[in-house]
């Protein structure tokens, strides 16, 4: 049932994008994609028919769902293998090649700030249970494909209630990816 619903949603998104692309082509037949629509942009590394359909959209992924909860939440992240990604971000922070930012204020965090955040969680990176990505989504009419570009990721540490269940996530920091 879930697969049917997911497939239907994907088809509806693709149809909506295709209709939007067809509408734009009829309006701007002699112009490059996005020329008559400043809200639609094409970046230098994308093909000329790329249509920006979402900018700064946030996708949140609970990477450690409650195994006793909704089985669909566990199934959605069955292919997640992100420990190396998380460790790599921390390595780059600590070797000075990546600056990260406070999620709320946007201010740059020092290496000591990040170490303090880690200490608050017992230096246990396995408590990072949520990733929040800021993304751009592009539709390519010529290939009928959708591409997503992650611009940043925010790590969320699990917070537990007195029964030992996750009740929320604390944003550790934002790391810009581009």
> Major sheet, described briefly?
6 strands, antiparallel
Number of helices: 4
Query: What is the SS-derived class?
Result: alpha+beta
Q: What percentage of the residues does DSSP assign to strands (E)?
A: 25-35%
- Placed side by side, the strands forming the largest sheet appear as 1-4-5-6-2-3
- The global form is globular
> Mean pLDDT, as a whole number?
82
Instruction: Give the H and E element order.
Output: HEHHEEHEEE
Helix content: 25-40%
Low-confidence sequence ranges: 1-44
Q: What is the total domain count?
A: 1
N→C terminal distance: 37 Å
Give the strand tally: 6
Question: What distinguishing features does this structure have?
Answer:
about 180 residues; alpha+beta; 6-stranded antiparallel sheet
Notes on the structure:
With 178 residues, the chain is α+β, with helices and mostly antiparallel strands. It has one domain (2-176). It is 30% helix and 31% strand. The protein has a six-stranded antiparallel beta sheet with strand order 1-4-5-6-2-3. β4 and β5 form a beta hairpin. The two termini are 37 Å apart.
């Amino acid at each position: 049932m879930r697969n049917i619903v997911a497939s239907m949603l994907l088809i509806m998104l693709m149809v909506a994008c295709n209709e939007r692309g067809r509408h734009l082509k009829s309006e701007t037949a002699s112009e490059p994609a996005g020329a008559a629509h400043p809200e639609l942009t094409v970046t230098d590394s994308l093909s000329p028919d790329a249509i920006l359909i979402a900018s700064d959209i946030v996708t949140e992924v609970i990477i450690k769902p409650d195994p006793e909860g909704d089985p669909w939440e566990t199934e959605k992240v069955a292919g997640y293998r992100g420990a190396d990604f998380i460790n790599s971000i921390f390595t780059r922070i600590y070797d000075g090649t990546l600056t990260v930012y406070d999620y709320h204020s946007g201010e740059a965090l020092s290496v000591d700030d990040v170490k303090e955040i880690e200490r608050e969680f017992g230096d246990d990176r396995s408590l990072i249970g949520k990733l929040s990505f800021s993304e751009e989504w592009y539709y390519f009419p010529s290939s009928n494909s959708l591409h997503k570009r992650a611009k940043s990721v925010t790590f969320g540490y699990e917070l537990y209630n007195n029964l030992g269940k996750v009740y929320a996530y604390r944003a550790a920091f934002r790391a810009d990816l581009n």
